[in-house]
Design a protein that fits this description.
There is one protein chain. The radius of gyration is 15 Å and the shape is globular. It starts with a helix and ends with a helix. By secondary structure, the protein is an alpha+beta fold. Helix 2 packs across helix 3. Helices cover 29% and strands 43% of the residues. The protein contains 4 helices and 7 strands; from the N terminus they run αβααββββββα. Strands 1-7-6-5-4-3-2 form a 7-stranded antiparallel beta sheet.
């Protein structure tokens, strides 16, 4: 398990939308609450986002049946509009997200520090599922 503590996990997707739309949907709470879940039986009833260096963000993720929920949040370390976000989660893990323009599409690459409680494959699948949900939501808007 000790080797997983310093592991970085990468997920990515190409969203068929221009970067300004992708950025807006990624960062605005009114959009975050609509896409920020890994499966249909979960949802994000609330989200707050102060998108600036030193600003805080948080979202409440809950099972729709009310059986479980948790707060996901942290502090921004770097923000470059339409290009890059880096933040530190409440537990100290680092996350970096790149937004790369490819013609009229946007490639999103997320790199995050793995946590030690769950297998890396499970973490990667969960983050990828949320990213896929974001892609679907943004492309349908």
């Amino acid at each position: 398990m000790a080797s997983e503590l310093n592991s970085k996990v990468t997920v990515e997707a190409i969203v068929h939308a221009p970067v300004d739309k992708v950025w807006n949907h990624w960062t605005k709470p009114e959009h975050i609450t609509k896409w920020n879940s890994a499966s249909d039986d979960w949802h994000t009833p609330s989200a707050e986002n102060d998108l600036q260096v030193g600003g805080k963000f948080s979202s409440r993720m809950e099972a729709k049946d009310g059986s479980f929920g948790f707060d996901f949040g942290g502090v921004y370390d770097e923000v470059k509009s339409n290009e890059f976000i880096a933040y530190t989660l409440g537990d100290g893990r680092q996350v970096e997200i790149s937004f790369i323009t490819q013609d009229n599409n946007t490639k999103i690459i997320e790199i995050f520090d793995a946590e030690s409680e769950n297998p890396i494959e499970m973490q990667q699948q969960g983050w990828q599922a949320i990213l896929n949900n974001f892609k679907k939501y943004t492309e349908q808007q």
